[in-house]
Amino acid sequence: MALESDSKRTVPRAGALTAEKLAADFRSVRGRSEALAAPLSPEDSSAQSMADASPTKWHLAHTTWFFETFVLEGSEPGYRAFDSSYRTLFNSYYNSVGDQYPRPQRGLLTRPGLAQILEYRERIDEGILRRLEEDLFSPELLNIVELGLHHEEQHQELILTDLLHLLAINPQRPGYRLDLAEPETSELAPLTWHPGAEGIQSIGHPGIGFCFDNEGPQHETLVAPHFLASRLVSNLEYQEFMQDGGYSRPELWLAEGWALCQEENWRAPLYWQEAEAGWKAFGLAGMGPVIPSEPVSHISFFEADAYARWADARLPLETEWELSAKEPVPEDNLADADRLRPQSLNSQPGSGPYQLFGDVWEWTQSPYQAYPGYRPGPGALGEYNGKFMSNQYVLRGGSCVTPRRHIRSTYRNFFPAHARWQWSGLRLAKDA
């Protein structure tokens, strides 16, 4: 997903797709985007809090632009666009498609308004669904529709991520939804260490079913003996790092991280605020106390790395993480659970590492780069990966705002080391 490079990939190597199944998925995914926007006012939907975020209205329009540009235009010679200006307004990074409106200024686009964007979505949805129901799309276009749905699910996560940052800068600290379940606190399960697979191992997506192209090709790699922590690092443990001078000890920090920590006066995770009664944190339900047993979130790679050094451990390699992960299970705290915050767990289910999916994205120490044999695809849909494989780190596992059908063990998210506004946390690793 990564910022808004969106992890948009080339046409996936998928198995047989049916127009009927895609039509059902299309209705579900598109409907969820609008449900996420439903609690917002037009003002909420139009505002942009920083250059790395986008207004909700823009996310709704851009995901629609994707289907219009890459599906409808590709299926109908002489297709007439809903509005020709949208080709620039809602293009993100597709240079081969044309110009893009500057990302830092998307919050200045008061027009078209939210009502017109919803009309745009309705019109494009009608066109896509009619063609799916009449089975008019080629196999290639069916693949692009599937890609567009996964792309939209990335933007659903970005809607909530960007919205949290927007609401957090309001002194009123307004909640996005006041009907979310109250957080549960519990006794923290003990942290234990589990040996991971070692030797020559195969990682990466096998190419059966949907994947983004940066998840492959599947390949062999040599893995050194290592241990993974049983669970994520908690708020309580992170507070111990803070109390032990974690933010004032340069020996724990990478040089660039230390300079940024001092420049921006980091003293706690993003959205934390110190109060007389203890630390509070802002979330999608508003301001509330920091729950000690919840996984720590909204920390940068630099903070995660500094904590790991303080704990006499390290961050996992993405290979180590993937070899310990299988697939999400119903108990995992992903967006479908509708908690929209990391969850406390008071016991360890099973004999190996847990909390591998959901709650928070897990920073790894692996730089985001191509797997051996990777080749970007042709055309506009192949633009994204190669040019973003620089100065970013891989995160794994999804978070409390990641749709369940969207995440898998091979999924590679990526962000720059300074990023804090995502639900990002950490799991420790050690060399054996």
Order of helices and strands: HHHHHHEEEEHHEEEHHEHEEEE
Mean pLDDT: 93
Q: How many strand segments?
A: 12
Sequence stretches where pLDDT stays below 50 over 5 or more residues: 5-14
Describe the biggest sheet? 4 strands, mixed
SS class: alpha+beta
Q: How many helix segments?
A: 11
CATH architecture annotation name of the largest domain = Alpha-Beta Complex
Distance between the amino and carboxyl termini: 32 Å
Question: Class of the largest domain, according to the CATH hierarchy?
Answer: Alpha Beta
**3D shape:** globular
CATH superfamily of the largest domain: paralog of FGE (formylglycine-generating enzyme)
Explain the overall architecture.
The chain has 432 residues and is α+β, with helices and mostly antiparallel strands. The protein has 2 domains: 19-168; 193-431, paralog of FGE (formylglycine-generating enzyme) (Alpha-Beta Complex), CATH 3.90.1580. Helices cover 32% and strands 12% of the residues. The protein has 11 helices and 12 strands. The protein has helices spanning 19-37, 42-46, 56-75, 86-89, 114-133, 139-168, 235-243, 255-263, 301-310, 318-324, 384-388, and strands at residues 193-195, 199-203, 219-223, 226-229, 272-275, 278-283, 286-289, 361-367, 393-396, 413-415, 424-425, 429-431. It has a 4-stranded mixed beta sheet. Strands 1-4-12 form a 3-stranded antiparallel beta sheet, with helices on one face. A 3-stranded antiparallel beta sheet has the order 5-6-7, with no helix packed on it. Strand 5 (272-275) and strand 6 (278-283) form a beta hairpin. The longest helix has 30 residues, at 139-168. It starts with 18 loop residues before the first helix and ends with a strand. 47% of the residues are buried. Residues 5-14 have low confidence and may be disordered.
